[in-house]
Amino acid sequence: MKVLTPARVSNVLLPFISCMAFAQNEPLQSSDLSEQVGTDTETLIEESRYIDCDNESKRCRRDYIEQIEVRGDRPNPISISSEGAYTLDSQLLRDYRTGNGNLTDILGILPGVQYSEAMLGAEQLSNIRPAEVSLSGASGRESGYFIDGINNNSLLGNEQNNANRNYLQDVIGHSQETFVNLDLVDTIEVFDSNIPARYGQFSGGVVDADTVKAGDELQFGLSYRGTNKSAVEYERFYSPWFSGKDVLSEPDFKKQNIGAYVKAPINADTGLVAQFNLLESQESLFQLGRLRLQKQTNYNGFIKLDHALTANDDLTVSASYAPFKGQYFSENALNSDYTVDGGGYNFNVKWSALRSWGAMDSQLSWRASENNKDTAPYWFAWASLPGKSWGGELGYESSIEGGYGDIEKSQRTLSFSQDFEFDYGALLGSTLSWQAGFELKQQYARFNRLEEAIIYNGSVIRPSVNCSGYTIDCVETQYKVPVSALEAQLGRALDLTKPEDILLLNNNVLQSGQFFAQREVNPKGDASARINNLSAYLESQWQWQDLTITLGGRYDYNNFVKNHNFAPRFRGNWSVFSERGQWVFGANRYYSQDQLDYKLNEAKQPSHFELRHLQQGRLSQWVSSKVSRGFVYQYSNIRTPYTDELILAYRHQLLGGTLELKWLNRFGRDGINRVKGYNEIGQATLFAGNEGAYRYERLSASWMARFDNQHVEINLSKVSNEVAPASFDGDPAVKLGGNKIVANDAFESDELAFLAIDEMNLNGDLDTKYYLMSLKDIEFQKQDFNRPLIANISWGGHFGSWQLSMTARYSGAQDVLYKAPYTRSISSAAGICETCSPAQKAYSVYFERRRASVTTVNSNIKYKLLNTQQYQLNLSLEIENLFNQRTYTIAPLSTGLEVGRRFWLGVKLDL
Known about the structure:
The protein has eight helices and 53 strands.
């Protein structure tokens, strides 16, 4: 073999040293470099030559061949710094991807991550929206989502229960603006503690995803995945009182996920990525005896161009379009179709530069999203009589028709950010490393109820009514054969005292006359807000021997609430046991994003009632009543909610992996709560207060390792999450004297529900008492996202043409609220007129029961069917709930359907 001696080294390295110097901000002159190297060569090198060296010669290996042995552990998701970060690389994303393939679906393998209990329900089989997750005890909207450094949080979400898609005064929302498919993602970094100051406007965790990049070779591919009703197993449960009349039909659905991509190196300095993904779901449901399709679609179109301007400068331009559309209907209502449009698009330009003093990133982005609902503006509860009989055919007293009117919500964001990294100064002989940056952002959001939504209740039956030209909310009696013709056939007048004549007349009715004497009008409303936001941060890192300390802070200000928020950040790590162990500690504050939805709620005006009468058989005009329902929202003088965090963790390199023991403690303060009151003109008003608070505590143990062809992730978390009583709305019931309790008319009818509690009476027997509560308080009581004990075991391996993975998740038992299959009625506080009796309104009922622990195992099997230099063909089988275990989504002693084992099949072609 040939051995390179020192004289030859200088000649070989000289071009590379010259190139490196040229790439700096202040390049060295080549002549100076030659003189410098030449001087060193004359001083240090006396002779240079090639030597033929026998690889087996001990002298040769000893004297001429330098041998370097490198030992280390393969990287696993656990961070090696003081940041509380977990990194999911492309291999983990491919191995653990199951189901819809949304961004949040894979986060469950990490410690402390919790999903909603509704995620396991049978109604979710056809759903394609990403599951909401709780990071560090916070709700989904309180965590920060970033795609390529750009915030993806929606300002248009709401805190209502998303099990209901159709609201009277809002549109179903989500914490994310756009739903990004994992096919577009290269790595995900998840922070649950010690979060750097460059991230802000959140109070939970942070999910930062980087999109795919172009490689050195041209690549393109196609993929298809699908599932349907035949790939799902179910388990039926019946209450002791089940009559046997209702049929527990299995959801008839199908889902498909289609993807295509191109990765193209245009030249040595430029690469292009273009990707398309479609996730579609269709479900067949019976609407009033007729089979119809509900459909959901989510598109992801993405393009990214990377260009190396110089050896030290890189320009990235990307754009994405990700619309969501849901087409739904109410199964027991006529003309009840409604369409929900969401998602949006963004455009992003990023310049990354390396300089002699450090590095910097400059980023400019524009994004827009919407959240709209399109449906009929009238909602009717007709009496189930001829002509309006569809409800009666299903056994209901009323025939429901219509919708709640059109609503448009939109969001626009323009932002520019600048980030720097550099070394400057020293302390105790150690260099200080700095990170600093700022962001300028303008956001515009709008809520617009485009039309009045009119709710008709309490149909009045009058066969002789004259509708006086009202054709929407009144119908006149119609006969198959005119009464005069019928009497002519009989040869006499009808005698309605005779049962046979009554039967004859009823059978002759095509449509029974009825009308509405009262209605609830929800007026149009429009509210918008434009917010200018300034953010800046600074962090300094100091390392002395085995101790590393990072100290800094973040400042946020906007011209909407005009709060100056400073969030200190402190974290550190101390290496022990010859760097095999590491203590991590920190104390931090995180300010959440300003609750813009309270400003948009100002567009939701209280509804008012209107009346009319029947005068001499003819309808009069509608006249306004003095009674209104609903609150006015008023947003002013609000502090920004924040969370204080303490964290202590120990990491140790063990058995080829990393063991992490973590204690995380968080205190949420200044949370937004709703304070009931009256404004200056006497309207019932919901003021935004700052009395909300919570405490979250987690103890977790994790071990994660990566070997040559396998990886393992194991974690166990014990969690406690408590909400302060001041966060609740309080009692929405009104006491009129004695024991009489009525509903507060200021609350919207779809905002309330009953909580059933079994209490011991004086005789020692259990009595069920019903307490009227707001749905917001019901959500607190439900203990969603709050399992006290969570464990995960995840494993993946590559064996030749086979790629296998498996995840097992255990969720401990807890007391939760189930929704009862019946309703309970209560009177309104007042009638809508002086002579009207208060109306009875039925509300849903929730009751508390123990939900057993749940263990689910998911598996992913991929097989490389063909593998040539030109293309690869892969087959995949994804199995959820592999062992067909119960999910306990059906309450004890209740009737319902639970989902068991289910499958996805897929094929992927890479060229």
